[in-house]
Design a protein that fits this description.
The complex is a heterodimer of chains A (417) and B (67). Chain A contains 16 helices and eleven strands. Chain A is of the alpha/beta class and 417 residues long. The termini of chain A are far apart. Chain B is α+β, with helices and mostly antiparallel strands. Chain B is built from two helices and four strands, in the order βαββαβ. In chain B, a hairpin with a 5-residue loop joins strand 2 and strand 3. The chains are: A alpha/beta (417), B alpha+beta (67).
Amino acid sequence: MTAVATACPPAVRQGGGPVPVVSEGPALLAGIAQGPGLAAHLNRLGPAPRPSLGALVDMARDVDLRGRGGAGFPFATKLSAAARRRAVVVVNASEGEPGSHKDAALISCAPHVVLDGAAAVARALRTQEVHIVVSSEHPSLRRVVEKALRERVTAGECLDLRLHDAAPRFVAGQAQAVLQLLAGRENLPVTAWQPEAVSGHRGRPTLLSNAETFAQIGHLVRVGSAGYAAHGTAGEPGTTLVTLRGDGWAPEVREVAHGTPLADLLDEAETSRPLLLGGYHGTWLRPAQLRGMTVSRSAIAAAGATLGAGVMLPLAQGRCPLVRTAELVEYLAGQSARRCGPCLNGLPAMAEAVRALVHGEGSVRRVEELCGLVVRRGACAHPDGTARLVASMMQRFPAEVQAHSVGTCRRGREVSG
Amino acid sequence: MSEHQLRVDWPACKGHGLCAELLPEVISLDEWGYPIVHEPVKGEVLAMARRAVKACPTLALRLTLPA
């Protein structure tokens, strides 16, 4: 492993969870040991170029840059769609997922890489208006970003940079919820009748992307598509940020090249247990599926999962994946904004159904029925993500589901109570 | 003739259920009383769908054309 930057991130998590270790990385997280200041940043890399819209779209297309918030939407397509009069740029670092710390790490260790990307996108869209949304879960994060913004303004940056605090809840980072926050309303999802690139902040074309996506742009404009492809594979150039064990012991944020074996990130004990890939809205994978697996969209898709926002949660030793899933569904039900009927009613029902299944009193059919009832029936994808987690549990652990139905747990512990 | 989609504004929908009364061809209610839209709207059902959209007490139902 590369050198560990002990100074990063300065953000202390509210609630006192362990602070993730952030390692120096090959591209976005290169040079973080020198601190997050603008002087060190410019000293190392020089000023970032600000290419034209056409050049930026071409570069993003050349390297097949995908959004890093979880959905993996092609960035070039989004940028082209937002390229109309009076566009707005929104950098989303709100990161509501408890298992993810990459955006907090990035924006506290390398804020100017993110802001270089935002500035390049703003220039390409001929706008000055840039909103930055950080999670209020990390109070010290705001100070780091404020300082970075002041440094840029002092250095002559002509952007109109505005900072916002997202509510510390799971669904606050969803695109429409972020737009609500920017408009001064409650930071909760609402129905999107059009993509935000078409009609976003106050009806204006809005390029809203994850903070890492902007950092990737910040790197790309400096090194060009050929330089960007120095890392990664031919099919998937570049690097990606991952959070390991983000909700548990020894959380860690790493920047890795696409194609990196999973075995380089997790130890043997961890890869011999089930892995929840993609966070609480993600997919369980069995240990057999992890063998030979690499950090690659195509390899992960072939296993029926997605990398999402790069969250990797190995199951803790001695734990049952069903019991763990039941806990997560309970948590996710509590994170509902409680505004959409199917989510408000369906997620608590699902939590109850999964809990009953774990205790040998439930029915697989009821769980499947509830999964079907919540999908695509909400303003945001919170119910869909929860259903995905539950469906992957049923699909990956049929033997365990069967064992629980007769009152035993294959993890060696009797299910009681 | 193009197919219209019936879309629900989920935070606005309060499960009054009028849409399912007026348009049982396309809409049923789930176990909590919220609409399940089964298929796109076309032909003679379209006029009734428009009526259901207008009748929704919370204006939570919309007819949209696929993009």
